[in-house]
Amino acid sequence: MSRPLIVIPARFGSERLKGKMLLAETGKPLVQHTWEACKSVDGVDVLIATDHTDIVAAAEGFGAEVVMTDPAHPSGTARVAEAAKGRDATMVINCQGDEPEVEPDNIRKLIEGHDAAMREPRQAFISTLACPWPDDIDATNPNTVKVVTTNRGGAAEDALYFSRSIMPFPRTREHRPKMHIGLYAFHPDCLARFANMEPSSLAVTESLEQLTALEAGERVAVIMVERASPGIDTAEDYAAFVSRQKSGS
């Protein structure tokens, strides 16, 4: 019976923290933490998609289903599309391997929200998540992505724009932006189409691949959740994660 498929892209050669998927100061490889969080979601299949034999060996060691994909893929989405090709899935969820503290409830809400958005008159091409801006994060930081949405109600709002710049600009009053959370859900056909699109001008400018879909006129549905979980981009991020794991928080 078909059901959602979560694909975890796990590339070895990260620019800022090479080999981070295999860092194991917690006693487990980083990617295992992400896999375990995804596996705790009921009614889904979970697959790791990688470009490196060491990650394959590690994944097989902790019991994950894993596939090798083309090392030349320009994005995690392209890697997910290759891994999902030919799979019998109702939808495909892209959950990055460097999200060891991803909240299973957020994944459930994404699945439910995308299913509902696919039933609306204008179906979602992609669904993703956002949350209110956290008080302890600088909104001018370009590494945290902002999203502006419609305010029409329904299963999900529609993304108007994503940016690394602060938006909307608070010219007349204080305004806290929405924080984008980089989990994505696709119908398999939409995933295949998206993976074959040439990156748009805006996507290249901002280095945000979801802008390719917006610039093509596609609907990107945004489901609101309470909070985001911290991803691992730098050695400092990983050290903070290890500290939280050791303290049990």
Automatic annotation (TrEMBL):
Assigned keywords, A-Z: Lipopolysaccharide biosynthesis, Nucleotidyltransferase, Transferase
Nucleotidyltransferase among keywords: yes
Organism: Parvularcula lutaonensis
E.C. designation(s): 2.7.7.38
UniProt-listed NCBIfam families: kdsB (TIGR00466), PRK05450.1-5 (NF003952)
One family name in Pfam for this protein: CTP_transf_3
Official protein name in the record: 3-deoxy-manno-octulosonate cytidylyltransferase
Enzyme superclass (EC): transferase
Ubl conjugation found in the keyword field: no
SUPFAM superfamilies, alphabetized: Nucleotide-diphospho-sugar transferases
A molecular function GO annotation: 3-deoxy-manno-octulosonate cytidylyltransferase activity
